[in-house]
Design brief:
Length: 241
């Protein structure tokens, strides 16, 4: 299995260091490198890599801002010369981080994690722009940020012009409309319950009859979602044998 990788790093010395390490691992195919966030974004949109080696602290825009620009985030290994950033990266659910200068054994250990995670992620449908349950999205709400697997999100809910995302007892805001979010979600597991909410059917614990032919969904996280009458008919058809 070839792993398509890109490097986004402002230091030429650090990029060269990573490239030399990558050469020692035949399973990685380096498809491009960039020295800033904007060129990194263009590179990722063009190549759709499996793996991103990302410098955190770059001038003008930092690595976290790049993640925020992406609809779908590759498996990310942060690179940094500052230990404080390395520790912080775990709040973002990065797969791993590498302190510069990068140790060869430490690099190999990070790649083991990458290979393990990718082995379960190769069911992506390349012919569509839809996300899969294994796709990662980046969410930034105030000072907090997360890399979240789509399949770990229980539901989405409109809040004004934005969308609240429910996962792991957290409810941050995603600065996109619910309609924008719906266009990207895998249809086999996400269902538009009403004008305000989309649910992950894998997180439904119980379905209850409700008023006027409606249904009420009890989610595994304790939340309740009312399905509109029209969508209740569609839901019954979708979920029946």
């Amino acid at each position: 299995m070839k792993i398509k990788a890109v490097i986004v790093e402002d230091s030429r010395l650090a990029r060269n260091e990573l490239k030399e390490l990558i050469k020692k691992h035949e399973e990685i195919e380096l498809v491009g490198e960039a020295e800033n966030v904007d060129s990194g974004y263009e590179l990722i949109q063009k190549e759709h890599p499996d793996l991103l080696f990302l410098d955190i602290n770059m001038p003008e825009k930092d690595g976290f801002e790049l993640l925020e620009m992406l609809d779908e985030v590759p498996i990310t290994v942060f690179t940094t010369a500052f230990d404080e950033y390395a520790i912080k990266s775990f709040e973002y659910n990065a797969l791993d981080y590498l302190l510069k200068p990068v140790n060869e054994k430490r690099f190999a250990k990070a790649l083991e994690k990458v290979t393990t995670q990718l082995s379960g992620n190769k069911e992506e449908v390349a012919t569509t722009k839809k996300l899969s349950e294994n796709s990662q999205i980046f969410i930034k709400d105030g000072e907090s940020c997360w890399l979240v697997k789509v399949g770990d999100i229980s539901h989405f809910e409109i809040v004004g012009n934005y969308t609240r995302v429910f996962f792991d007892k957290k409810k941050p805001l995603l600065y996109k409309s619910l309609n924008q979010v719906e266009e990207k979600l895998p249809e086999q597991s996400f269902f538009r319950a009403n004008r305000q909410q989309i649910v992950n059917t894998n997180f439904i614990e119980n379905v209850m009859p409700w008023f006027n032919g409606k249904l009420k969904l009890q989610m595994k996280n304790g939340e309740e979602v009312e399905v509109s009458r029209r969508q209740s008919y569609i839901f019954k058809d979708k979920m029946s044998l």
